[in-house]
């Protein structure tokens, strides 16, 4: 398989599974984690590697190294020549994952997608029938959709993030350190902040729309992260996908290990006192965009760009926590009428929104 984002949590888990089940790793790509990449090269002996930071290219311990100057497209073409049709995990973080997703499908790779932004910003340009999602919620939905009756509604769950239960008036002064204290999952900083604002769940809603073609989608808070997804069928029945919160399960299914024991089954006695609660739109303002986003999925590109830039500002302690949702609504008001009917237009709006948010809120 090929792993884009090999130094992140998804990439590291995928490589651990590859080692455990003796799966061949053909290529690795990361942004700038030189030490991690060199260790992975030594252990897995990939045919090709990519590091985004051009200055680090000479320091990578491999004969065939690509970097940003060469272009991710050239790297993927070389991967196709070496390993046509291989499983490709796209675990890049952020908007930079969109073009690799488009190209991976065009080249005929078996795409296992952990990059949310590919679907949030560019779902209309992807053949979603050829994508295997790597996400606990979307894996749960996919698992439940086998041999399905007619759908009525898709439901995913959220933990509520770091600030569930905290007094809403105090959120304006919430610190970065507090926002990064996710109750159940060990994730990167960006996605942990997105969990605290519920933007992550907003993105997962539109991912589910693109992946499964259903517009009737809802999310509820389930604090223990044991119930990941539910499906209501037209016949009146409902099914649920339940497991311990461990991303290895979704990754394992995405890379073909669905008949192996990956994690221990959940002790069903722990399902006592599980509750599903509606999402408080006063606390999680951005989630109020759900219905608008489902009706106009192209605005995902605007929301994603604004959120990326303002979260970066929050993590660098240049803006307050409440500015995140304000910036997203502001960007939508300003750019809503922008026509997003091509990949080029999505790339353009991504740049325009980022520049606007930097100038308005951060500079």
UniProtKB/TrEMBL annotation:
HAMAP family: DXP_reductoisom. NADPH binds at residues 8-10, 115, 117, 188. The keyword Oxidoreductase applies. It is an enzyme of class 1 (oxidoreductase). The gene is dxr. It comes from Campylobacter devanensis. One of its GO terms (molecular function) is 1-deoxy-D-xylulose-5-phosphate reductoisomerase activity. It catalyses: 2-C-methyl-D-erythritol 4-phosphate + NADP(+) = 1-deoxy-D-xylulose 5-phosphate + NADPH + H(+). Its cofactor is Mg(2+); Mn(2+). This is 1-deoxy-D-xylulose 5-phosphate reductoisomerase. Mn(2+) binds at residues 135, 137, 204. Keywords: Isoprene biosynthesis, Magnesium, Manganese, Metal-binding, NADP, Oxidoreductase. The keyword NADP applies. Catalyzes the NADPH-dependent rearrangement and reduction of 1-deoxy-D-xylulose-5-phosphate (DXP) to 2-C-methyl-D-erythritol 4-phosphate (MEP). 1-deoxy-D-xylulose 5-phosphate binds at residues 116, 136-137, 159, 182, 195, 200-201, 204.
């Amino acid at each position: 398989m090929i792993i884009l984002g090999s130094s992140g949590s998804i990439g590291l888990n995928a490589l651990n599974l590859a080692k455990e089940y003796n799966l061949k790793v053909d290529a690795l790509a990361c942004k700038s984690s030189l030490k991690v990449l060199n260790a992975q090269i030594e252990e897995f002996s990939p045919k090709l590697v990519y590091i985004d930071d051009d200055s680090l290219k000479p320091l990578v311990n491999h004969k065939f190294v690509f970097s940003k100057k060469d272009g991710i497209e050239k790297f993927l073409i070389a991967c196709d020549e070496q390993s046509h049709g291989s499983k490709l995990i796209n675990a890049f973080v952020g908007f930079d994952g969109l073009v690799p997703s488009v190209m991976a499908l065009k080249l005929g790779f078996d795409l296992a997608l952990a990059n949310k932004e590919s679907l949030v910003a560019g779902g209309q340009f992807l053949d979603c029938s050829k994508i295997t999602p790597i996400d606990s919620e979307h894996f749960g939905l996919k698992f439940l959709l086998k041999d399905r009756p007619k759908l009525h509604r898709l439901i995913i769950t959220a933990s509520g993030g770091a600030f569930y239960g905290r007094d809403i008036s105090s959120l304006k002064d919430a610190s970065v350190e507090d926002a990064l204290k996710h109750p159940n999952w060990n994730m990167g900083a960006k996605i942990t902040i997105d969990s605290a604002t519920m933007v992550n769940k907003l993105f997962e809603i539109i991912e589910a729309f693109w992946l499964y073609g259903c517009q009737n989608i809802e999310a509820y808070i389930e604090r223990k992260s044991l119930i990941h997804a539910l499906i209501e069928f037209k016949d009146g029945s409902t099914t649920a996908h339940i497991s311990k919160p461990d991303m290895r399960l979704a990754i394992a299914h995405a890379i073909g290990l669905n008949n192996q024991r990956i994690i221990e089954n959940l002790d069903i006695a722990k399902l006592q006192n599980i509750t599903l609660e509606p999402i408080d739109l006063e606390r999680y303002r951005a989630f109020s965009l759900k219905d608008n986003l489902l009706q106009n999925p192209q605005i995902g590109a605007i929301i994603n760009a604004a959120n990326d830039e303002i979260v970066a500002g929050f993590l660098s302690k240049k803006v307050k926590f409440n500015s995140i949702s304000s910036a997203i609504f502001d960007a939508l008001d300003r750019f809503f009428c922008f026509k997003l009917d091509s990949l080029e237009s999505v790339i353009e709006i991504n740049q325009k929104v980022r520049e606007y948010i930097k100038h308005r809120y951060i500079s």
